[in-house]
Amino acid sequence: MREQISQLIHQFETVGATDVHFIPGDQTTQVICRANGGLNEQSSIPIDQYRSIVSHVRYEANLKEQNERIPQSGLYPLEENGMRVSILPSRYGDAMSWRFYRAVVSDKVAAGLLDPEDDLIWMKQQTHGCIIISGTTGAGKTTMLYSLMASMEGKRIISVEDPIECSVPGILQLELNAKAGFDATRCFEEILRADPDWIAFGEVRTAEAARLTINAALSGHVVLFTLHAGSIAEAMLRLRTLGITKEELSVCKKIIHLY
Description:
The protein is of the alpha/beta class. It has helices spanning 2-14, 47-60, 107-113, 116-125, 141-151, 184-191, 207-218, 232-241, and strands spanning 17-24, 28-35, 38-46, 72-76, 83-90, 93-100, 129-135, 157-161, 172-175, 198-203, 222-228, 252-258. It has 8 helices and 12 strands. α3 (107-113) crosses α5. The longest helix is centred in the first third of the chain and has 14 residues, at 47-60. It is globular and about 55 Å long.
């Protein structure tokens, strides 16, 4: 089965896919790739074959809960890069999405996209506050997050991720595990005692995550996180809808918006 999945991945790589979506039906499963900003339909897969693929991916990605009514996500191990897996319940069983992470992460990437003096040197001088990386799907938010972590020499950085998609030398990377009781709230409680200069959070999606990141910034830390938004104004609006007050938004010192 791993060989079959490798063949599928190679097929998707040839069209430059960043995301692949499997939509199960009664007899077959529709396969849609996102490449170059658009969606392209691929050859469908027989439903029995698809269910075998889902079963294998669940096992390899540590998603062993055989309950189609529970959404799950994890990381499928590949030799060189990770593949993030998301599974959602649907009428005909598990609907699955793959996201490939192939980007090169380094301090040079951050320096190439940001102004070395106005942005990078300024960030290194900060002692508290939020730095937000915003953008739409495929804009490069995760790549920028990791590249900024790699750029901050001399800083003790602890990251909170779900899942860890890329290893960054010198960074203490923690992976959330809600089943084991290590959720975002517990994680922030512990790392605030671990003397971080910077805290990096994968992506803020919930009111709880927004509250935790803002509180950490207010307590005297630099907090770096990503946020799905179409513009800087929409990023601020999203934080407001997640329960962050106008006064608390003042702790957000910089928004790096990627297009």
